[in-house]
Amino acid sequence: MTLRHSQLLYRRIGVLLLFLGHIAHAQDAAPVDPFTLSFEELLDIEVVTSSRRLQTLSQAPGVLSVISREQIKAYGASSLIEALELAPGILGTGTYMFPVNSLSMRGDQPGQYNTHVLLLINGQPVRETQNGGTDLALLRAFPLKGIKQLEIIRGPGSVQYGTNAFSGVVNIVTEPGVGSNSVTAALGSSGRQFVALNQGMESDSAWANINLQYFNDSHNNVNARDEHNRPFTRNFAQQNLGIHLTAGWKEWQFSYLYADTQSGHGGTLPIAELFSEEAQITATRQWLSLTTQQNLWQGQLSLALTYNGMHNHYTNPGPQPSYMDADDWQWDMHWQRSLNPDTTFTLGVELQRNQGDSAGDHVMEGHITIVPEYQDSQQRFFTEIAYQFSQNLSLVAGLQLNRADHGSSHLSSRVSANYQWHNGWLAKIQYAEAYRAPSMLEQGITLPGVVLGNDALKPETVDTWDAQLAYSDADFYSALSVFYSHNQDLIIRRTQPGQTASYTNFGEQRFKGLEWEGRWQPLDSNMRLEMAWTYQQNQANGINTDNASSMPRHLVKLGWIQTLGQSFQLGLHMQHIRGWQNPSGALPYNPLTNPHTSLKAHLNYQFNRQLSFWLDITNLLDQNRWQPEITRRVLNTWPYLEQQRQLTLGIDWHF
């Protein structure tokens, strides 16, 4: 499908969404109020990600953050990556081939694939094993309207979720049942078009909800120099379409996601003569999950069947486009029981079956296999026990055994303790391990002159210590966290100028740092202030720097939400990045990664209970952002996806 045909298709879909919203029946829908809960109540918000069961944020082990749908709306996030960057310690990154494909958490950034942060939807993994983490479509196209909250674990999560839950876990929690029906339409600079629809229906025992989101950005030019020091201009235009369907009947729930992104990119290699203005990537992810919960043996049995489908199509261009296809199935079963009023026991098993291939389609030119056709299976067995030692102290201990056809077995463990005083103070401490199995691409890719795989790769492992001290009262919340991680056998892609790259187990890397976050909301006011500061250092054997991952040493975030009168609401969010470290020995052809400040403003006017208008200004300071080139590490920097200031004007209609 050509870019022109795709644009026509998406525009027709946008017209259809507006038509569906127009014919729906109208009903009252109150505007979102981000000031409903005090911070004491916010700490009692129930989360499920940390231990696969409902518990309050203060009781959950580990360091967690929650981004609510009220925050997403107030700050005007238009994509999942923008919503996640509201959380402490998270930075969206990209490369010349995958604009905005990865999440760097606490300064960890392994490469161009999102292999160290596992994404979940309602607790079920959105995981693909061929590349290990092609999440471009998810981060840009996931429909935001149906999200209830984003639950984020900063630190390992393998004991609960297995491979890829290495430096963090993101759980996208959607609203069960039918939410507020609405239509959103917007136009903006650079050819921006945005349409979203949320439509639900229900009966006595069943319900269904559909969320659709379309976003087009047709003019997004970036200028850079390639590895031969030649200037070039690329249009990183993007078209994103996301459809999320959920349905429930009694104890059963079905969920389906289709996410598609088309984007310009910088080619297989950042060498201008090897690509043209037609270089494009189409990334498609399909995900479905069927879940149920049943009472069994005085406990609760949870069953889930999950499918992850990935299709990537790269036009570089060249004699042949390249494709990557993967189909991953997972069967999840876990059982929880309260052994007594103070003790909860969990036992579970996951069985995963993976298959895929990667090849060119121009048979007349010869069939090119990039990643050999494969079939692979993985098994995971886990158990956890949670004990409420006293009214103030809770303890958790867990284990997970991971086995795979390709690679050795690995045992991950975690222990944690939470202590909560009655005067608002809370202390957490946790030790947790995680692992990440090599992807099929890392083991088997064959692209002579570009990159070769290594079938002798060992799994990556990490062990992390976390400690957090927090305080909250009715109008104030503050938390200080410290962390230390020891990574071993990290898999990296190594190359030298003019040579074929390969994957290898690099060795050790050590991360240490602190996170400080706070929120202030004066009682009986219509204002909220939020802040977060993350400082990290990471060192690796053989690299003479305390920032070996090249990610920023300082990541500062400030947010301000203010309601003005009865109708206006203003949201301002700032992200300041400094302390980048360019790859050692990289060619200094592009601008350095100087400190960067991005500022976003979102103004909403509530005309009545059904209708509101909004203005969104992204990159208000009009700053260019350059990030380290982390894939080949030959060039010093690469431009981030969005460079120019963007203005968007939109309308929301609740019906």
From TrEMBL:
Signal peptide: 1-26
Main subcellular location of this protein, as a coarse class: membrane
InterPro entries linked to this entry: Beta-barrel_TonB, Beta-barrel_TonB_sf, Plug_dom, Plug_dom_sf, TonB-dep_rcpt-like
Keyword annotations: Cell outer membrane, Membrane, Receptor, Signal, TonB box, Transmembrane, Transmembrane beta strand, Transport
Domain TonB-dependent receptor-like beta-barrel: 229-620
Membrane topology: Multi-pass membrane protein
A Pfam short name: Plug
Protein localization: Cell outer membrane
Domain TonB-dependent receptor plug: 57-169
Top-rank taxon: Bacteria
PANTHER family xref list: HEMOGLOBIN AND HEMOGLOBIN-HAPTOGLOBIN-BINDING PROTEIN 1-RELATED, TONB-DEPENDENT OUTER MEMBRANE RECEPTOR
Family assignment from sequence similarity: Belongs to the TonB-dependent receptor family. Hemoglobin/haptoglobin binding protein subfamily.
Protein name: TonB-dependent receptor
Organism: Bowmanella yangjiangensis
